[in-house]
Design goal:
single chain, 167 residues, alpha+beta, two-stranded antiparallel ribbon, 4 helices, 6 strands
Length: 167
Amino acid sequence: MGVRLLNSLHFKIASVVIATILFLFAVYFVWDYYLFSRQTRSEARQAAENVSEITMNSIIELAMLGRHPELLRGALQRLANTSTVRKIQILDLSGTVRFSSDPSTLGRTYSLREDECSVCHRPGEKVPRVAFLEFNQTQLLRFTQTIPNRAECQGCHNPEDSVVGLL
């Protein structure tokens, strides 16, 4: 009876229908995952840009131009304490950390050869402004924003430099 069932037309049709449905579900789930992943990355990129713009246009201007570094440190610390932000730093042109949400990194100078930097700074490639990285088994969105040298910055910074640092 088992052999007869396997050879029956009903069994063959049912098997093809079930296989087709399973295949379509698999295609749908892969497609849905891809779209969700793409949308999530796009939203993360936009959120990082928004945080950067808000930080650049308000906190840094008020704190740096008003020469109130304690305001800047406090603002950076509050931003870094959000669940989505891991670390915020401001580097000068030499790669030295001038402000950081992690006080232990103040004064540290980064080298492009370090693992932490080399993931973005690859020889012959343009450094991405936004990068999705895996570092120390953690997935990260690294976002950088240059700090332009505006006229009001030139009391402390060289007027010939177009950029005074990196957020």
